[in-house]
Write a structure and sequence with these properties.
Blueprint: H1 11-24, E1 56-62, E2 74-79, E3 86-90, E4 105-108, E5 114-118, E6 126-131, E7 137-141, H2 147-152, E8 162-166, E9 172-176, E10 192-197, E11 203-207, E12 224-228, E13 234-238, E14 251-256, E15 262-266, E16 271-275, E17 281-285, E18 293-296, E19 301-306, E20 321-326, E21 332-337, E22 356-359, E23 365-369, E24 375-381
Antiparallel strand pairs: 1-24, 2-3, 3-4, 4-5, 6-7, 7-8, 8-9, 10-11, 11-12, 12-13, 14-15, 15-16, 16-17, 18-19, 19-20, 20-21, 22-23, 23-24
Length: 386
């Protein structure tokens, strides 16, 4: 932990720390903050970006599922190659597809009607998504079924920890990783968060989800990005768990700008990191907050959605919300505040906001909601620069 010192100043403090350690299982230097609340020291020097104009009209509960089905959690969302249709990965009306027989992957038209669905029985926890230039749909399935789910649904075994390439019609074209098993590339993934297919067909996969809640490295920290050729041949991995530039604590979402730079939402470290496609670190930005989802459109407009901020996981007064700005300059233009909700999204704080984000060719923004507010939200631009 780089930005907090152990409590050593007085016997009283040591005694309090010891009591907290015994009662709550904490080490003495982490008695105040929750697990995983540490972060890079550079973060403390950045003023929260909370009070910019909001030129969007918010439309909640956008999109209707077939057969009267209700939405579950949605973090995987991506615009189609036509710039109009929206793909979403619904967690089967709940927060997991274990034991479900519904199609988690749905394609919606501009009016929010589902025009295609697929993937039943193939995915446990759709977390990240990309659509390549041929219209193929890539899904990062970030975990396998837990013990409770397996007891209720034994058929859920042997799934998860994979990246699957589907045709636009739902045919399985490729599977990266070994279903149901964690491990290391080239044959395995551990909690893959997101997948991105570059213009040349190269495939980037970001791992691991649980690393954002770790304050020190361990066997499951991983936090890496792996690159594959278009046919799935492993090229390399880069990054590791940590707080320095080029290190990650859960690379949670990926995007690429018009220059071919890879943008990484390093959620545990409350920042964006930028790399070239060989894994060389180029820049680090803190001004877009603790980002869950990241999208860059054809005009290099950057959409960064924050579903997590609170005083533990993003201290200093940062609010949940959607921040929109420039991938070219790093300037933040707009801030859409969190939804009012009785219970907060993420681990605490105030209000709720989506976890996945994309935008169509007209500049409409779509958020996939996870937590107390579920389904999809549409943000319609009314006074933006577009």
């Amino acid at each position: 932990m780089r930005n907090a010192a152990p409590l050593r100043s007085t016997p009283v403090l040591l005694s309090l720390a010891f009591v907290a350690t015994v009662l709550f299982g904490m080490s003495p230097d982490r008695v105040v903050a929750q697990r995983g609340a540490s972060g890079p020291p550079e973060h403390a020097a950045v003023e929260p970006v909370n009070h910019l104009p909001n030129p969007y009209e918010t439309v909640r509960n956008w999109g209707t599922l077939p057969d009267g089905r209700t939405w579950g959690s949605v973090s995987a969302i991506q615009v189609d190659i036509d710039g109009v249709h929206i793909w979403a990965g619904d967690r089967c009306g709940a927060n997991s597809c274990a034991g479900s027989d519904v199609d988690p992957i749905v394609k919606l038209d501009g009016n929010g009607n589902v025009v295609r669905s697929f993937g039943a029985g193939l995915i446990i926890w759709p977390h990240g998504m990309d659509v390549d230039r041929a219209g193929n749909v890539w899904i990062a399935d970030a975990r396998s079924a837990n013990a409770r789910e397996l007891e209720a649904s034994p058929g859920a075994a042997g799934k998860g920890h994979t990246v699957t390439k589907f045709s636009p019609e739902g045919e399985v074209l490729m599977v990266l990783g070994t279903p149901g098993e964690t491990g290391d590339p080239p044959t395995h993934f551990t909690e893959p968060n997101d997948v991105l297919v570059a213009p040349d067909g190269s495939i980037f996969v970001a791992e691991t989800h649980g690393a954002q809640y770790m304050d020190e490295a361990g066997p499951n920290a991983k936090s890496r990005i792996s690159k594959f050729t278009p046919d799935g041949t492993f090229i390399m991995s880069f990054g590791s768990w940590g707080y320095r530039d080029g290190e990650f604590r859960s690379p949670h979402s990926l995007a690429m700008d018009s220059q071919g730079r890879l943008f990484v939402a390093d959620r545990g470290n409350r920042r964006i990191q930028i790399f070239d496609q060989q894994g060389n670190h180029l820049d680090t930005w803190y001004q877009f907050s603790r980002i869950s989802g990241l999208f860059i459109d054809a005009n290099d407009v950057l959409y960064a959605i924050d579903s997590e901020s609170d005083e533990n996981y993003n201290p200093g007064g940062w609010r949940k919300g959607l921040r929109v700005g420039s991938a070219r300059t790093g300037e933040v233009w707009y801030f859409v505040p969190e939804h009012v909700s009785a219970r907060a999204s993420g681990m605490g704080g105030v209000g709720a906001m989506g976890e996945g984000v994309t935008a169509d060719a007209a500049g409409n923004v779509y958020a996939g909601e996870v937590g107390p507010v579920q389904g999809l939200t549409k943000f319609i631009p009314r006074l933006t620069r577009r």
